[in-house]
From TrEMBL:
Span of domain D-isomer specific 2-hydroxyacid dehydrogenase NAD-binding: 137-347
Keyword terms: NAD, Oxidoreductase
Highest classification ranks of the organism: Eukaryota, Fungi, Dikarya, Basidiomycota, Pucciniomycotina
CDD domains named in the record: 2-Hacid_dh_1
Species in which this protein is naturally found: Rhodotorula graminis (strain WP1)
Gene Ontology MF, one: NAD binding
Protein name: D-isomer specific 2-hydroxyacid dehydrogenase NAD-binding domain-containing protein
Name of one Pfam family that matches: 2-Hacid_dh_C
PANTHER family: 2-HACID_DH_C DOMAIN-CONTAINING PROTEIN, D-ISOMER SPECIFIC 2-HYDROXYACID DEHYDROGENASE NAD-BINDING DOMAIN-CONTAINING PROTEIN
Length: 389
């Protein structure tokens, strides 16, 4: 869809710096129409993502040159240099991850004088991912996953003795460690705390910190004050990291992809975990050495070894919403391990996702930037603040 003027009833202010919007993700006609309240012109090219319209025309140079704001997951391949987008004031990424943007030629060509605000959609998926973590941990502690594979798929009645008798591990008896205490980590902590679990947090600073007001947060979620964890540990001290893992019955990885986080869950970390620990990854697959993880998941306790002993390369189970590579090839042993719940990077896919991304974050950022205020989830901003027009 080429540039279409918003309805005459639109309340979009006449601000020349944010008049026109280019949408590249297939958000649907209703949300495109809703953006008419924020922009004088909206161009819709649903060319990105699994639901992309393969028959839709692609934007041409004119469309990029006309855009004051872009709503997309990625920078299109044809955008090689900021000169192609002379009016661009806001790039709103519709996901939380940003490394795929930072690695492009376009982004790396930005000079220090660039006036483009870059924001992501962090926080809109916190409640959904928190529920996913809680749900899959319950499946593992109640052996629902095992029972589905053994009882329903194989159509046989599983005797209690095969399950270990009184086998259920209640949440109120578990210590849940959260690695990375942002939106997702805080909402996960809130959910497990409500169930009576002891929560620990592993962060860079190793101390409680309030949630930043500059980041988007869903109402009535999370831990705004950072006071739910019974203890904090710092990622900067190896001894603290390993002590953290040794205390946890469940380890929840919420880390993003970055040069600092790639491969940070390896041999040392999995050896430090309890032999029956559950490892949950809802961050990024690149943070985990999957060869080491598979070895730890396959391992069995040695003769006379306690099942929850630490110091050996063995853990009890894993719930993996993210892996590397994605899609995971069919040859991966992760598909065939009975103590693994594997989902296709789908934990964030709430029915509310696009409403939140478009109206709660993107439209809010447009409104704030027009007022000369700081946007939410901004990860790169002009060094000189842009004032109101």
């Amino acid at each position: 869809m080429r540039w279409v003027a918003a309805p005459s009833s639109s309340s979009a202010p006449a601000n020349p710096s944010l008049d026109s919007c280019l949408v590249l993700w297939p958000i649907g006609p209703a949300l495109v129409e809703a953006l008419g309240a924020s922009f004088r012109e909206v161009a819709y090219f649903p060319i990105q993502g699994p639901d992309a319209d393969l028959d839709a025309p692609r934007p041409v140079a004119y469309d990029y040159a006309r855009a004051d704001a872009i709503f997309a997951f990625a920078l299109p391949a044809e955008l090689k240099h900021p000169r192609q987008t002379p009016r661009l004031a806001l790039f709103q990424c519709c996901s939380a991850g940003i490394s795929h943007l930072q690695e492009t030629a376009f982004y790396q060509a930005l000079g220090p004088e660039s006036q483009v605000v870059w924001a992501n959609a962090s926080g809109i998926q916190a409640s959904t991912i928190g529920e996913h973590v809680l749900g899959t941990v319950l499946m593992l502690t109640h052996k629902v996953h095992y029972l589905y594979l053994e009882q329903q798929v194989k159509q046989r009645w599983v005797p209690h003795r095969e399950l270990g008798g009184t086998f259920i591990r209640e949440l109120k008896t578990l210590t849940v460690g959260i690695v990375g205490y942002g939106n997702i980590g805080r909402e996960t902590a809130r959910l497990f705390s409500t169930c009576g679990s002891t929560v620990l947090a592993l962060t860079r600073s190793g101390r409680p910190e309030p949630f930043p007001s500059s980041s988007f947060s869903l109402p009535s979620t999370g831990d705004p004050s950072g006071t739910l964890p019974a203890a904090y540990y710092s990622t900067q001290q190896r001894s603290e990291r390993l002590a953290f893992f040794a205390r946890c019955d469940v380890v929840v990885n919420t880390l993003p992809d970055s040069a600092a986080t790639r491969g940070c869950f390896g041999d040392d970390e999995f050896r430090a975990m309890k032999g029956e620990a559950i490892y949950v990854n809802v961050g990024r697959g690149s943070t985990t050495d999957h060869d080491v993880l598979v070895e730890a998941l396959r391992a069995q306790p040695g003769e006379g070894e306690a099942r929850d002993a630490v110091g050996t390369l063995r853990i009890g189970a894993a719930s993996l919403d993210v892996v590397t590579p994605e899609p995971l090839p069919s040859s991966s042993p992760l598909y065939r391990l009975p103590n693994v719940i594997l989902t296709p990077h789908s934990a964030a896919l709430s029915a509310e996702y696009w409403h939140r991304a478009v109206l709660d974050v993107f439209a809010l950022n447009v409104k704030r930037l027009r007022r000369g205020e700081q946007g939410v989830n901004v990860w790169r901003a002009p060094t000189t603040a842009r004032g109101p027009a």
